[in-house]
């Protein structure tokens, strides 16, 4: 599952490759407000990934949207799936998701620009198959500075 998450976020920075790449001078976005940039990126990702999209046998990315300067990823987890049942504690599963997504976000050049220059954060909300909240976390400057 961690590999899938990493691939998803690497893809997220690459999907905008036509508009943004690591060689680009990001100052081209200086005239766009942080809120508008977050909204544009969320809408682009939703279209490019054709959300909702199945990530793996237990996880579906239901939605990507912006709320202010936060790009929110809504994910649904089938808690009855075998891959999820193998996690002995919810805390270890949550920690694994947080670590994998933090690494992917903090290492993607586009996300680093968003986080450090534009103060745009990434939020991940996990719900179960009955839409009951499981856990949530935000990745921003503090998480990427470690």
State the gist of this model:
The chain has 146 residues and is an alpha+beta fold. Helices cover 45% and strands 23% of the residues.
How would you characterize this protein structure?
Strand 2 (59-67) and strand 3 (70-77) form a beta hairpin. Helix 1 runs parallel beside helix 4 (90-107). Strands 1-2-3-4-5 form a 5-stranded mixed beta sheet. It has one domain (2-144): GMP Synthetase, Chain A, domain 3 (2-Layer Sandwich), CATH 3.30.300. By secondary structure, it is α+β, with helices and mostly antiparallel strands. It is 45% helix and 23% strand. The protein has 6 helices and 5 strands, in the order H-H-E-E-E-H-H-H-E-E-H. It has helices at residues 2-15, 34-49, 82-85, 90-107, 109-117, 141-144, and strands at 53-54, 59-67, 70-77, 121-128, 133-139. Residues 1-22 have low confidence and may be disordered.
In terms of topology, how is this protein built?
Layout: H1 2-15, H2 34-49, E1 53-54, E2 59-67, E3 70-77, H3 82-85, H4 90-107, H5 109-117, E4 121-128, E5 133-139, H6 141-144
Parallel strand pairs: 3-4
Antiparallel strand pairs: 1-2, 2-3, 4-5
Helix pairs in contact: 1-4
Q: Which oligomeric form is depicted?
A: single chain
Strand order of the largest sheet: 1-2-3-4-5
Strands, total number: 5
Secondary structure class reads: alpha+beta
For the record, the CATH class is: Alpha Beta
Q: Beta fraction of the residues?
A: 15-25%
Instruction: Report the major sheet.
Output: 5 strands, mixed
How would you state the average pLDDT, rounded?
81
- Shape assignment: globular
The residue fraction in helices comes out at 40-55%
CATH architecture: 2-Layer Sandwich
How many helices? The count is 6
Provide the succession of SSEs: HHEEEHHHEEH
């Amino acid at each position: 599952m961690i590999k899938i998450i990493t691939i998803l976020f690497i893809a997220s920075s690459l999907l905008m490759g036509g508009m943004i790449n690591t060689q680009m001078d990001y100052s081209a976005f200086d005239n766009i407000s942080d809120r508008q940039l977050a909204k544009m990126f969320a809408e682009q990702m939703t279209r490019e990934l054709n959300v909702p999209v199945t990530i793996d046998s237990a996880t579906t990315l239901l939605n990507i949207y912006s709320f202010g300067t936060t790009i929110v990823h809504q994910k649904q987890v089938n808690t009855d799936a075998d891959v999820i049942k193998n996690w002995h504690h919810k805390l270890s599963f949550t920690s694994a998701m947080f670590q994998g997504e933090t690494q992917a976000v903090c290492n993607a050049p586009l996300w680093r620009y968003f986080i450090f220059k534009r103060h745009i954060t990434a939020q991940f909300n996990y719900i179960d198959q009955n839409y009951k909240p499981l856990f949530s976390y935000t990745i921003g400057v503090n998480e990427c500075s470690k």
